[in-house]
Amino acid sequence: MGYLFLISESFETEHIPIDKRNFVLHDFCESLDCVKQYPDTLYGTNGLHIQNFSYGTIYTLLYGSWQEIKSQPTLNGISNTVLGLFHQLMFAKPGLFEIIDSKEQFDATYADTNYGYSGFDFNASPIPYVKCKHSWQKWKCEWLSKNQGEIIWGKAQDPFLPNRNYSTELLWGEVIKHNKANVLKKYNGNKVTIFYEEVMRKKGPQIEAYARQIGGAIAKANYYYLDKELSKKESKAVSGSLRAIYSLTGSNGKRKYISIDHKHGMFEYYNFRGTHQGEFRFDGTKNKNADPSHNLKTL
Q1: Beta carbons of 10 and 109 less than 8 angstroms apart
Q2: 3-state secondary structure at position 81
Q3: Residue 70 has what DSSP assignment?
Q4: Residues of the chain above pLDDT 90, percent
Q5: Computed from CA positions of residues 178, 123, 100, 88, in that sequence, does the dihedral angle turn out positive or negative?
Q6: Phi, psi of 190 (to 5 degrees)
Q7: DSSP 3-state of 188
Q8: What is the mean pLDDT of the segment spanning 25-38?
């Protein structure tokens, strides 16, 4: 559970370039969907109900027809499709937010919880600020990595990678970043295989640094934290080994571990005893079976 305060001024669209308004609204819709599915709670002041924007009140945007939206110059650029998505989310969650007296009251009430702010993307946004799916994920992952007891394991997508769907999206993001998305047909639509064959494999001498970078990002996206002490102990116990070991408290209250195979861009999985569970690709699919010689030495 998290708590987000809606920043009233963010809902003014006048200063958003026309060619970006649709993207800003779409991004906010994706964040709202995350909030609804988790679920988190949105707060705002009563003033948000009555505040006048360049297009009218917030209800013009929330419940306005397509014709009404088109007639407002500062809403130009928003597509009927994205507006429909926005309305669909609103109808699915009656009462967008709960009323609180002020931002100051919100800060005082929720300062020790997973709290933040939300709204449309705008320049003066406070931190942490949720404006899209990615920023919601970052906000959630940073909190859960430090408060692993709050992970909702009933919604976990994998025993070792509880946020697996999102972390796999990060791999596809790397494919796009490296301009390799056009070979999807060649690999029968397998996006992770494209990542390994067209991105990871072609890193050459940079593969170890790249594997640490991406592996670390995947671990953090799944609420792990870098266990520096254990990493140091294992590196000393195995001469020449440079280990980055990440830790996660599982649904049974026992720790589990993953380390990054720098040479091949894989994860090594371990149970709470440090017993090797196998080698896995960064999306959680198995690459090799368990090997006792890979067990952690210092647990």
Answers
A1: no
A2: helix
A3: H
A4: 88
A5: negative
A6: -85, 100
A7: coil
A8: 95
β-bridge mates for residue 276, sequence order: 270
Of 35 and 243, more confident: 35
Q: Specify the length of the chain in residues.
A: 299
Q: Which residues on adjacent β-strands are paired with residue 56? A: 53
Could you give the CA distance from residue 9 to residue 51 in angstroms, rounded to a whole number?
A: 9
DSSP class per residue in 197-261: IIIIGGGGGGHHHHHHHHHHHHHHHTT-EE-HHHHHHHHHHSTT----EEEEE-TTS-EEEEEEE
Nearest to 227 by CA among 209, 244, 208: 244
Q: Are 123 and 24 in contact (CB under 8 A)?
A: no
Is a pLDDT exceeding 80 seen at residue 95? no
User: Which helix (H) or strand (E) segment is 130 a member of?
Assistant: strand 129-130
Q: Return d(Cα 189, Cα 122) in angstroms, integer.
A: 36
CB of 287 closer than 8 Å to CB of 200: no
Q: Which two tokens stand for residue 224?
A: 């792990």
116: DSSP letter: E
Which positions ≥6 away from 85 have C-beta within 8 Å?
26, 29
Q: How far apart are CA 194 and CA 175, in angstroms?
A: 7
Q: What is the pLDDT of residues 135-162, one digit of tens each?
A: 999 999 999 999 999 999 999 999 999 9
Average pLDDT over residues 46-63: 92
Peptide bond preceding 126 in cis form (omega within 30 of 0) = no
Helices (H), 2-132: 18-37, 47-50, 58-63, 66-70, 80-92, 103-110
Q: Among residues 152, 124, 173, 151, which one has the least CA distance to residue 283?
A: 173
